[in-house]
Amino acid sequence: MINVLFVCLGNICRSPMAEAIFRDIVKKENLTDKITVDSAATSFWHIGSPPHKGTLSILKKYSIFGEDLVGRQITTKDFERFDYIIGMDENNIKNINAITVQPHHAKIIRFLDLTDDKKDVPDPYYTGDFQETYELVSKGCIALLEMIRVEQLITK
Ligand code: 4NP
């Protein structure tokens, strides 16, 4: 199994959106027996909470299921469990690195560094623009699957 964890500050806007979109792609590509997907926050603020209503409505707009998602905080165990830990922005990466346990095999990546648009994923909690975030996250998900296919020798 290849285990992927998306991480953001609150685990209610960007990382659950990425989890739902990537899970949807994995399902459509018939890779559910090879890839698992989860998401978590660097903060404790929204443990047990559903995604933000803006995230749920943009997912609904594209017929992607996200109603089952529940906020949780990243733990040191996640560095053993996950192969890819994908942070939405530079601050997430700093916070993830601050709690990493050594040695670990998880590959820690700022999400959009996988694309030609290397920047932080804008946080719609502050921008209010869930559409912009959806488009960037979708782009990131496609690039992530491509990288995983190459690294893990998954053929189409
Ligand atoms: P997220 O956005 O990290 O994309 O889930 C945020 C969610 C909540 C807060 C900040 C950012 N907050 O301050 O509660």
Would you write up a description of this structure?
- The protein has 156 residues and is of the alpha/beta class.
- It has one domain: 3-Layer(aba) Sandwich (Rossmann fold), CATH 3.40.50.
- Helices cover 41% and strands 14% of the residues.
- The chain has 6 helices and 4 strands; from the N terminus they run βαβααβαβαα.
- It has a 4-stranded parallel β-sheet.
- β3 (84-87), α4 (90-99) and β4 form a beta-alpha-beta unit.
- α1 (14-28) packs across α6 (130-151).
- The radius of gyration is 14 Å and the shape is globular.
- The two termini are 17 Å apart.
- It binds 4-nitrophenyl phosphate.
- 4-nitrophenyl phosphate binds next to loops.
What layout of secondary structure does this protein have?
Layout: E1 2-8, H1 14-28, E2 35-41, H2 53-61, H3 78-81, E3 84-87, H4 90-99, E4 107-110, H5 124-127, H6 130-151
Parallel strand pairs: 1-2, 1-3, 3-4
The chain binds 4-nitrophenyl phosphate (4NP).
